[in-house]
Every structure is written in C-alpha cells, then in structure tokens.
Specification:
Number of strands: 0
Distance between the termini: 87 Å
Largest sheet: none
Keywords: Membrane, Transmembrane, Transmembrane helix
Length: about 90
Amino acid sequence: MLLKQRCEVMRAPRDQWYRVAAWKKIEMYDWFPIVFIVFKVVVLGTGMFFAIKWHHDQAKKDAQEKKDAQGKRDALEKKTQYDGSGP
C-alpha cells in the first residue's frame, strides 16, 4: 500500500504532491495485520517460555525429591545397622 501511494505521489505534479499524500491516508486495515502478528508472537512466545520453564522446574523438583528420599532411606539404613536396634 505504501509503495502504491509513493508511486502516485511521484506521478503528481510538483505543486500537487502534498494534496495527493494528504488524502491518501493509511487505513486501519493496512496496519492491523502488522500489529496483530507482533502481538501474537509476543503472547505465544511468552506462553512458550513459561511452559518450558515450568516443565524444567518440575523435572528439577522431581529429581530433588527422589534424591532426598534416597538420602533418607540411606540414612535410616545406616542408623539401623550401627545402632543395633534393628533385627
């Protein structure tokens, strides 16, 4: 659209170019796709970032819980072996 406007302005006589440019206003439907696509990329990109971050954090949390549980089992096993309180 802008290229077409520029060509029309160039074809107008020098004393009338400002009149042609003045009434060739950019309409909402010309810039809406640009704004909408940028907005969509930002929203989807943010959503993907937080989805990946959440899954990564959950994996770290699960691994830490497994490690803590194994550590408690090992500590309990050592305590029962050396205390003599076990069977």
